[in-house]
Amino acid sequence: MATLVLRSAGTAIGTALGGPLGGIVGGALGAVGGGLVDGLLANTLASRRSKAPQLAEIGITHAGEGTPVRKLWGRMRLGGNVIWCTRFQAVSKTQKSTSASGKGFGASTKVTSFELSFAVAFCEGGDSVTLGRVWADGNELDLSQYSTRFYDGSEGQMPDASIEAAEGVGAVPAYRGICYLVFDLMPLGDFGNRMPQITAEILRRPPIPDPDDVTNTLRAVCLLPGAGEFVLGTQVYQSSDGFGAWFPENVHTPDGIPDLYSALDQLDATLPGRGAVSLVVSWFGTDLRAGTCRIVPKVETPYKTVRPADWAVAGFTRATADVVSQIDPATLDPTGLAGAAPAIGGLVPAFGGTPSDDTVVQAIGAMNARGLRVQFYPFVMMDVPPGNALPDPYGGAAQAPYPWRGRVTCHPGPGQPGTADRTPAVADQVAAFFAAYTPMVLHYAQLAVQAGGVDSFVVGSELVGLTRLRTGPGDAPYPAVAALKALAAAVKAIVGPGCKVGYAADWTEYHSHRPADGTGDVLFNMDPLWSDPNIDFVGIDNYLPLSDWRDGAPNIDADPVAGPTTIYDKAYLQANIEGGEDYAWYYASDADRVAQRRTPIVDTAAGQHWVFRQKDIRSWWLNAHRGRPGGVEAAAATAWVPQSKPIRFTEFGCPAVDKGPNQPNVFYDPKSSESFLPYFSTGSKDDPVQRAYLEATLSYWRDHAPVSTVYGGPMLSTADMYAWAWDARPFPDFPGRTAVWHDTPNYELGHWLTGRLGEVPLKWIIAELCAAAGVTAFDTSALMSASTLVLGYATDALMSPRDILAGLMDAHQFDARESDGTLAFFARGNVRVTALDVAGLAVEGAADPGYAVTRAGETDLPGALRLTFADPYLGYASCAVEARRNTGTSQSVASVATAAVLDPAYAADTAASLLQQAWAGRETGTVKLPPSRLALDPGDAVTLGFDGLTMPFRITAVETSTYRTATLVGFDPSLLKVSSPPQPRAGWPKVGSYGPPLIAFVPLPPVTGAEPQLWAPRVAAFANPWCGVDVYRGNGGGGWDYAVTVETPSVMGVLTAPLFPGPVNRWDLGNVLALRLAGGGQLLSLAETQALAGAGALAVENAAAGAWEVVQYQTAQLTGLGRYTLTRLLRGQLGTEGAMGDPVPAGARVVVLDANALAVLPLSLDQVGLVQRLRYGPSLVGPADPTYTEVDIAFPATGLRPLSVSQIAGRRVPPSLDVAFTWVRRTRFGGDGWDVDAVPLNEEAELYDLEVTDGAGRVLRGVAGLTAPAWTYPAALQAADFGAPQPAYTVNLYQVSAVVGRGQVATAKVFP
Q1: How much is the pLDDT for 979?
Q2: DSSP readout, 957-1022?
Q3: Please, which residues have CB within 8 angstroms of residue 309's CB and are 6 or more apart in sequence?
Q4: 1188 and 1210 assigned to the same domain
Q5: Residues in domain Tip attachment protein J (predicted)?
Q6: Distance between CA 920 and CA 938 in Å, rounded?
Q7: Any domain includes 1227
Q8: What does the alpha-carbon distance between residue 120 and residue 712 come to, in Å, rounded to a whole number?
Q9: By the number of CB atoms within 10 A of the CB, which of 147, 209, 861, 1156 ranks highest?
């Protein structure tokens, strides 16, 4: 009988459980094991015989009867099945156009659009199903703009009221067990008046009872990022670049909900038992020297316009606050893959700014409203940039960049020549630090009260470099501890007795001070604080190591027979909570750590080993403390009363990186000098090891915390174990939006729980499938590896459990086998390895060696492997990563496709691992097993020694006949862990936000005369993003009447340098028009003929004159993003020479004139010159929205005003001294032709006014109502005006309109 990995065993189990039908079901489940036999490792180029889910099918919405209900685990973007819809409903809307006369409205146009109500079902539902994002035709929807209802498919689900109203009560199923989304009367205009293709992000957590799973045990989290000016806001904040582009400060999901609300919603959905949040809020330290360190709030940039309220913290404003250091983006992300956008001079902020006070109040209020206990956690980030040149208290040439706050100390530091430690001088330095630090803490204590109060308040954290400073040797006072006591008293007086107050000590700090200086001192320096009546709990930021694991030798913690065999073993990790490093033993040197030479921790003097065990929290809490200055135990105990106060893990956690439990306190942050990987880590992403650490820690203390005889509660409650960390920025927007947040590269290997706790353990998927198939004899205890968490996976059709699992097995590196009547699922790397010696194999005669080994040629193996998966950061689009061998001649590419959602970095690691495994499997063979190896099963690993070689193999099948013959394939468990370089992440673009637009009401002369309402101003507008701009006019009754919509954005900008007057009627070759355009607008150089034909026209505002000059250019030179210098100018076009300034200053507005973009503000002639109240803003919202801007403005009838005359001349009329003045009339439009003697009049009558001035502006004689372009100035009048004829006369000439009166003045000095 042949035993493959699972196929026939599954059938046997199914048959035993349920007869012939059970055999079919069990066989379907069991056949999953064939994935090892006919999959990649056995024959890389052979296709699978199973039908795994196809990613392309999962995202398509159908409408049909009998469509299978999809199964989902984790998160996935799913298409669905339309289960109900109404008929299309026509909606007619009448739109009116403004009449040419400006009197009311002109013709009406009837526009018809359609609406539709429908429901789309997505997958199997239940109580643990939630809705994420929704797409229509591939574009994310803002569901706040639609009437929708989501049903999770729970057993208590009732029929939808709208469907019942349409179909009849009692005629509609409740669709229990199915999640679906209902749209009520969805407007279809944006979708071509048809039902759009709806897809949705659905999150489902299988209902598998597991009391030790982190989602059931974790009850408190720390809320990051701690820095971000408006990240904590629950109202919408927007910022602008000042050029019409608005960006959300705290809304990055398409539903328009502030990020904090979205993040808290995700927390609620992920952790049903969550009860507390530690709110981290940061100020910034500036120096590691305590005496000179400032603690201040900072902003990200001094240049930002924010609405509805700008940043303010503790009396600081954006104008008065310090700015966080600005650094090269490559410092934040050495790979250059995150695409951080430059901010100041090509640099980006090293940190987010301190959260604005109003957002902190909002965040506390929001969490209180949800019933969450808020722990307020003031935090100090050290903003010490590279190249700082600050003296280093630790003796370096300069202070290390962006250090840990725990390194703030005296100067010179402990152990340095001339140190202030253990001298009276240290007290002054510590006092200077707390003088800077205390205002921050007290400010937040007051703010917490203002916000409605918090459950607890932490007065400081991890100031270990200060709390170990003392004013003398031995048990001299510790001034920082005394300062913390005073601070705790001040905080308690503010927050009141109902708020618990504590300090969060570093895990190396809470216990005692045992300086490695040869004195033998053991000093319980923190006990004065812990015993203080104003301190309610002992806070520990607990990052104690729970493992000492190595991939290679030595690895003395591993036991291949009795276990542990993997770092993910919960029993192994729990054994190190009160055991292992820092409890039973320590490493005396780095060399000892490498060699695993362990030194026992023993108290040879008094036998109180806990005194030296940093990890022995239990004994520290249970016992009285007696210091040992100079190594001699004091007679009296400290003020600490055993069991008097609870312990609280104010932080605990583990990075999601290979071997994180080896050193859980380290973190990945390339800009910081503190950035490290854990001991012996490969640097690969490892979410399961983080989860294993959390589950081990939480369940251990839940079950093993002693109960106090003083206060009757546990020493440590899981309710007060705050995991580091949840993020206030929702997943996957963080870390997906790389252009928004510069810390996104740190997420991959960091401590973040957001997005990770929603991953589904493989064992849950298998348990659910086994339950569906009626299989109860299964074992998933060996599913322990870096690949046993599933971010998302869904089925696309009716399929067997074997087919469902087939799509996961390569992607998540696991297999299955039958063992002793049980289906055993195991991680590929979590196998026992047995050494086989050829001398001990069974043989058939002397010529039979008992084994055979075959090596495949290179051409039979892939040179590259492509893994296709769904990328959660790209809207679950199908993406691929490729691993390629750097050596060898094979050109073939193997493809592995999965419908699973994978993190791109994990996918890259997996592709590399699969490729290496394929090459390791080039050796195949068989061995005849002796009876002593009866325990070997398919899936086990063996080594075979022959001809001086030892080769690793894996058993893929065992056939039992005369002998038990095992089929082997080359296998090396070490290849299952591959650390790939960081992967490019196509980050999401920086999203826009609809805010107040740029707008200009431009009174322009006509060009053709055919323009509507020549007297009305043209409206130019720009915004980014653009949705149109509506203008409303006040109706005098407190309301607003719609006026006009600007449907097309104009190219607008400002002058970046003054613009001086220039010549008219010829090229201005002396002036340069320098400008910056909003939104990176573009201008092109023109041919001279194009400019002379009217192209390249701009309007430049002369605000002082209330007029706009029309300027044309020929040459445009790009000088920066959106910045140009324009030369070869034509000035004062269309008769606007009077609008030239002397000069027009920098900052003046500029509008590129485009008739297709300019709207006309409806204006009657009666309204010309009258002040009007206008409101304008985004078309998506109405005039009451805060994005609207209100102005009072009056408009001249520029389009009706006659142009200035030209060619003013005068001559004497002999023999008299009379002067005959003449001029040439100009026209407002229609005067460009060359074949006419005179331009069209374009006025009701030809009329002029003339003034003779004294040259200084005083009018000496005025003549009105001239009907021809000529007038004679008699000598007698000259004498009357001047006393005698003059050699020159200054005259002002106006053409007169019957509607608006005088036109533009033309002034000339005439020499007759």
Answers
A1: 62
A2: EEEESSSEEEEEEE--GGGG---PPPPP--PPPPPP---PPEEEEE----SSS-SS-TTSPEEEEE
A3: 237, 356, 358
A4: no
A5: 799-959
A6: 18
A7: yes
A8: 53
A9: 861
Q: CB under 8 Å to 728, separation ≥6 — which residues? A: 223, 224, 225, 228, 231, 232, 259, 260, 263, 363
What's this model's pTM, rounded to 2 decimal places?
A: 0.86
* In contact, 645 and 622? CB cutoff 8 Å: no
Centre a 10 Å sphere on the Cβ of residue 61 and count the other Cβ atoms it contains.
18
As given in the structure block, the two tokens for residue 559 are 């036991």
Query: Do 527 and 676 have their domain in common?
Result: yes
Q: E-strand spans in 39-163? A: 72-79, 81-85, 89-98, 105-124, 129-136, 139-140, 147-151
| CA nearest neighbour of 1201 among 935, 955, 1015, 971 | 1015
Distance CA 503, CA 1077 (A): 52
pLDDT at residue 1237 is higher than 90: no
Distance CA 386, CA 597 (A): 37
Q: What is the spatial distance between Cα 926 and Cα 1220, in angstroms, rounded to a whole number?
A: 122
pLDDT in tens, 52-93: 666 665 667 888 888 888 899 999 999 989 999 999 998 876
Which strand (E) or helix (H) includes residue 446? helix 425-450
Distance CA 436, CA 314 (A): 13
The token pair at 973 is 């468990």
Look at residues 177, 103, 166 and name the one whose alpha carbon lies nearest to residue 772.
177
Which candidate, 61, 1041, 214, 181, places its Cα nearest to that of 688? Answer: 214
- 3-class SS of residue 1180: coil
Helix 762-773, helix 7-30: angle, nearest 10: 90
The most distant pair of C-alpha atoms in the chain lies apart, rounded to whole Å, by: 149
Residue 1191 one-letter amino acid = V
Domain that holds residue 940: 844-894+904-976
339 has a pLDDT exceeding 60: no
Mean pLDDT of 1244-1257: 94
- The two tokens of residue 451 are 């916000």
CA Rg, the chain, in Å? 40
Q: Give pLDDT tens digits for 640-668.
A: 999 999 999 999 999 999 999 999 999 99
Total domains, the chain: 4
User: Does residue 1002 contact residue 1108 with C-beta atoms inside 8 Å?
Assistant: yes
Asked if residue 35 is part of any domain, the answer here is: no
Tell me: do 412 and 320 sit in the same domain: yes
Length of the chain: 1312
Which H/E stretch holds residue 893?
strand 893-901
Assess if residue 1112 is contained within a domain. Answer: yes
Instruction: Tell me: do 1193 and 1212 sit in the same domain.
Output: no
**Pick from 452, 285, 425: which is nearest to 354 by CA?**
285
Query: What are the structure tokens assigned to 654, written together?
Result: 């583990």
Measured CA to CA, the distance from residue 1245 to residue 1082 in angstroms comes to 44
CA 1073 from centroid of its chain's CA atoms? 40
Both tokens of 147, joined, read 């009437």
The CA angle 510-503-225, to the nearest 5 degrees, is: 110
Residue 938 inside a domain? The answer is yes
Contact indicator for 1006, 1199 with CB cutoff of 8 Å: yes
Q: 390 with 288: CB under 8 angstroms?
A: yes
In the numeric block, the tokens 């969060």 are attached to 504
Give the strand pairing for 500-506 and 537-542: parallel
Strand partners, 505: 540
DSSP state of 730: P
975 CA to centre of own chain = 33
Specify whether the CB–CB gap between 802 and 32 falls below 8 A: yes
- From the number of C-beta atoms within 10 Å of its C-beta (0-12, 13-18, 19+), residue 855 rates as exposed
Pairing label, strands 105-124, 89-98: antiparallel
Instruction: Write out the H or E segment, with its range, that includes residue 1029.
Output: strand 1029-1034
Q: Phi and psi dihedrals of 347, rounded to 5?
A: -105, 170
Q: Residue 442 has which token pair?
A: 């007290």
